[in-house]
Structure formats: C-alpha cells, structure tokens
Amino acid sequence: MSELQKRQIQLEVLRYNPETDTAPRYQTYSVPCLDEWVVLDALNYVKDHLDPTLSYRWSCHMAVCGSCGMMVNGEPKLACKAFIHEYADQIKVEPMANFPIERDLVTSVEDFITKLASVKPYLIPKEDKPISAGEFKQTPAELKKFKQYTLCINCMLCYAACPQYGLVPEFLGPAAISMAHRYNQDSRDGGRDQRQEVVASNEGVWECSFVGACSEVCPKHVDPAGALQQVKVASTIDWYKEHLMPWVTK
Amino acid sequence: MEIIKTDVAIVGAGGAGLRAAIALAEADPKLRIALISKVYPMRSHTCAAEGGAAGVIKSDDSLALHFNDTVGGGDWLSDQDAVEYFINEAPKELTQLEHWGCPWSREPDGSVAVRPFGGMKIKRTWFAADKSGFHILHTLFQTSLKYPSIQRFDEYYATDLLVEDGRCQGLTALEIRNGEMKQFQAGAVIIAAGGGGKMFPFTTNGNIKTGDGMALAYRAGTPLKDMEFVQYHPTGLPNNGILLTEGCRGEGGILLNKDGRRYLQDYGMGPETPVGQPVLKTMELGPRDRLSQAFWGEQQKGNTVTTPWGDCVLLDMRHLGEKKIDERLPLVRDLCISYLGKDPVKEPIPIRPVVHYMMGGIHTDLQAATRLPGLFAAGECACVSINGANRLGSNSLTELLVFGRRAALSAMAHLQSNQTPSSDAALAAKAKASQNRIQALFDKSDGTETIAGLRQEMMDTMEANVGIYRTGEGLAAACEKISELRQRYANIALTDKTHVYNTDLMQALELGSMLDCAEAVTVGARDRKESRGAHQRLDFTARDDENLLKHSLAHYHPTEPPRIEYLDVVITKSQPGVRDYSGAKK
Fold it and tell me: pTM of this prediction?
C-alpha cells in the first residue's frame, strides 16, 4: 500500500470568547493534514500544536456521539465525518447555524434538549406488563416501521439546516418531531394522543415548510422530512375525524 | 460557592449513571437526584458500543453456562458471587430495557433475537443491529426524561469528592459553560464515569474516556482494583482505532494473515471451522485476549500485512453477503467505507488489536459499595469484579444496567441509615480546598510543560510498555516514566485564562486523571508476576494460582507510586481450570 498523502490546509475558524471578544472573528491556522483526516483531526492538531485556547466539543470520532456538529464551508457537518480529501486547501469552520454561540465552535444545546423532552420521547406502553412476563413481541416488520427514526444521534445538524427554525425559534424542529413519530410508530406504544398536543400544535409540525434540508444533512439518514410529512398526514386525518366525522373514533 | 443539596449525586450520565438515576426515581419520587456529567448524556461513550448485551433468555441456554463462560473468560479472576448476581439479574435488566422501548433486533416470531459472541458457549447476546450501545444509551436517556426528580447538571466536571467524618458527603464540580465551582451536598454519591482508555494512543475509546471517575475515587482514598488488566479488542480499524464489533465474527467473519491462512488455528483455537459457519468458543469466536495475543504472534512471525498504518491482519466478511451485512452490521460497513475507503462486502478489511476496555476500576463489593461509606460505583469505572482478567464481549453493557441499578439500591439503603450530615462549614472548607486546587492550576503562569506534550509522552509509554505482551523491564521503565510525568505535571500552566468553556483547563484536569490511573495500571502490571487473561508477561508466562489468584488494590499517594495490596478472589463453584477454546475440547 502506498504512503499516505499529506497536504497543507488553511483552516479558517470562527473564534468568539464572550469574555474577551466583542464580536466573532476569524482566525486562520495552517495545518499539515493527512489526506485521510477529517476536519476534527485538523482541529485537534490546532488544539495540541498551535493554539490550546480553541474550544469545540468532540468525543467518539466515529459519528455516533453527535458532539461535533459544526458548519464546514457553510454546510452543517459532523467534524468527524467531514473528510479533508473532499475539500480544497482552504476550509472554513464555524459553529452550527441557528444556535447561540457559547464560545468558538461550541453552541448552546439547551433549546434542543427542552424540545426533545417536550414530545415525551419514551415508550408509553399500550398495556402494562410485568418484567417477569417477558418481552413485548414485535415482528421484524413492526420494528422496521420505526427503526429508521431511532437512529437519530441528536447532533442537531437538521436544526442548523432548517430555514424555518432559523426564522421561528419556537419551532419544535425536525429531530424532536421525528422522535415523537418514532414512538408513535412503535407497536408497543400507546402514547400518540399525549404527544399530539405538542407535535400538532402551532409550533409543531405545521411550522415545517417542507424544504427537506434536514434530511439532506442528516448523517444517519433518519429522513426527518419524511417523518414530518407522515406526521402532517396523520394529524390532518385526526382533524377531519374530529371535526367532520365526530362519530368515528380515532 | 453555590451549594446544591441533593439526596444522591451521580457522576457520569452514560449507561450506568442513567440506569442508577432511573432506579432511584422509580423507587422514591421524592428523592432529589443530581445527575452530573461532563457531557450531555447522549454523548457518553456507551453510545459507541456495537455488538450487544448478554443475558440468558433462550431455552437452550442456562444461567450456569453464562456463569462458566464469564468466569473462564475472566481467567478465574472474577468474583464468583458477583458473577452469580450478575447473570441472575441480566435477563431482567435487558427485558426492562425492552419495556422501555429499546429497539432490539427480533426473530421472525417477534421474540428478541440473540447472536453469538466470543467466548460464549451458547448464543446469548441481545443486539440492536450493530448499534446496541447507542440504542441502550438513548433508550435510557429518553426514559430518564419521564422523571422530574432527576435533575441534570450537563457539562459539569467533577473535581473532588467531599469526604468528612469518614463518609463521602458530596462533591465539587465545575460548571464548564462559565467556570464556576459548585458544591453538591449528597447523602450518597455514585460514580459511573467510565474508563480511561485514552491513556493509550490507539484506542476505541472516545475523547472523554480519561479515567476521571476512577481518579476521583482514588484520590479520595478508596483503592483501584485490578488496573493492570486492559483489554485489547482484536478488530479495530488500523488508522484511527474505530471499533469493528465482535458481531463481525459472530455473524461469520474470519481472520486471515498475509498468506490467507486462518491463523487462529495455530494458537490453540482450531481446528479450522467451515467458512461462514462459526462454531461457538472456537477459532474466531475465541475470547478477545486470546485473539489479540494471536495477532502479536503473527506479527512476531512476520505473517502480518504491511499497511501505511502499521502491521495488520485481515477481517474477511465477504462471504456473509451484502444483505446480511446490511441487516446485521450496517454501522460496520459504513465505518469501513467512510474511514478506510474499503467496503467489507467487496474486500477484506485490514484490522489490528486496539485498546478497548479496562477490567479494573474502583474497588467495590457485590453491593457496588466502595470502601468509603457513602460512595458507590458502577460500570467501566468500577471493578466488582465480574470481568476478572478478561471481559467477555457483551457482558459490559449488561453490567452497566445490573450494577447501575444495584448502586442505586445500595445508595438508597445508605440514605436510610439516617446519618447526620457534617456541618455546612466543614463541607464548605473541603469544597474550598478543591476550589483552591483548581484555582492554583488556573493561576499558574510560569509553566515549563505542555498538556499535549505530557499526554503524548504518557501515551507513548503505555503503548511501548503496557501492551498485549509485557516484560518486567518494560514495565519498570513505564513505572519510572509515569512517575516522572506525574511530577512534571506540576509544571504545566494553562494558555487559556478565561472562564467560559475553557477546554484547556478541562484537558489539564483530564490529563491529571489519566496520569493517576496510568500509574495504577503500570505499577499493578509490574508487580503482577504471572500471565493471566489480558495481562501477559513474557518473563512470567504461566498463571500463578498459588500466589496470584488475587485482586490487586492500588492505594493512592499524592507524590509517590501507589501501594499495592492483594485481596483474595471469591471462588464459589468453579475452581481455576484450563481455558480451552479449541474445537477439540469436549
């Protein structure tokens, strides 16, 4: 096998420290990168060798912990899955769009966590069953109905991509609604009515203008846009049933 | 300093910490629970576990078999009373997760499916494709949102335990987003903060796995147990150490040397089994320690493949076919393609052993209690010990659940003993001392060492001397070097003197944790003059049951190397025997 290719990259990083900066600024670092590196490797090089004051979050380096979301050349990416070889010699790195900056590449996660919690993202069982009675049966086909939506790593790239969330910060957003949909679709769950209060509210699914950017940037192919469409259809059917055919139970 | 009064403070919000928090919230909704973690719960490294979780559920399996596999796999260093408790609780905990919505993979009839794993006589690993840890973590995190009594302190870094009147009564923690120190007063503290694999350069562990929880307990005077036992996972991607689950081999993947030979047959795990028809406890389904050691053997013989990332062997999964790989190992395929540019459907994947898991940790008894009253521990940071000298794949995810819950029950029992807390003034003085320690590090200006520099020297030392095979000479050198690095640590100064999200400070504290833990590993390894499980000595090649069927306990000293004490292993049913992973066994 051949030797690994090296390349000098100019990494232009947005810096902002609320204690010392009045406004965000850019700082460029010249980083010797191996071609197989990801942007996170370049940031780590900066942190270890050039500038220990640079702050960003990261952990798993395998696109599963969801810590290192940021804008790479203007697109929401996981820094650990943004490959240097896919970029030219100048790469711009900024904190995730649509979130308040805490410092440098670190943005506030609180709004997302609050929204996630608001959709009751946990199983509300249809029936009570003691542990001693064993597992709920669920066929592979039933699992498949919601499996895709379980793959969300809460990286929030979909919020950074969502034009509606940028305009209306109250919007529940793609990941939270997808997670509600995930539990609604679970054959073991009976909690949809409880979630609908939030999901079908004004700040819920109806805010979505179906641009589909969320699904394009999702690193796990969760397809939140698809989930939101399904939720809209189901909520519309609810509305018709309630208002036009009140004798039909949901 | 702000004081936060809680009943139970939990440090770490991964699998074990979340399980403990839920158990407490369910048992008594009035309990005030503080769940403290340096990262948001879903960032915890539980998320990176792939293969699955072991628990007896199928009719062809039995608790006795799970017991034997675990104890034999651990080379008889496991405490058998703990293993007994573990295997009994395992199926209940995994079923509980199912009731909480965990998307376990299923059989056609809708029952939970199980897959084979290394060192297990019967298939008993529950799995959610190859993202089992991820699904367990998110199921627990999302379930925890049901309970208002679980108050989360996300992105708080625990700095010191508050020990007063001989009891642990809380801790201090830095709020990372503003650098403020907080005092948590607690009737009981549970540490569930993971392992410290990041002391090695080549590891499956995430950046956060810096042994902070272990060091927290250790510095407070409660010993670390069996730290010399560090598990190498046999199949990591060679360039960055990303884990390829044991499920690859469980599903039928095979290991080849440069000549295409299934070399495991040359290391007592043969005879060769038919390709694509894995035989339990044989060849590729041998335990992790044996497989990693066989890699080393091939390397010595010159049978490995040379790659830009060093010597490798090949993991061949092509015969599984695209459909099975996509259904059972989708993450593995994605990782291989993304990070190595190789598709396991089309070509063998070069792999090499990679530091994965620490069998050792904070010494606890069967009740997850440490020797320090009021302090409990669970998960990778703890050592009960069920894992002995070598953990079996898929026992650790189950361990998080079983002992996370156990720690919660013990913490509750401790609360019921109704001991009067020490005075606020006494606790405040302890908290102030912790604050002063951090402040001194923060204020120091005439530094002669860098964090990255010391960390690199530590990692190089561990890699060179504390790997798959060890020698007395290498370990002595490692002890000396780590001791030196601990001294030199006093000479680092921060570059970043600001308070908001100061990751320079975090890295300094994490390096301190790693160095403390690394010294317990090296001294424990130097003093264990035998070969057992994951601890293999070229100068003491045999297991020594006469003298060393014992746990090591490392006691902290602020400036000197740890004092090592030995403690008998609990043997109940299974006397030490031969670990036979050959197909020729009866």
Answer: 0.97
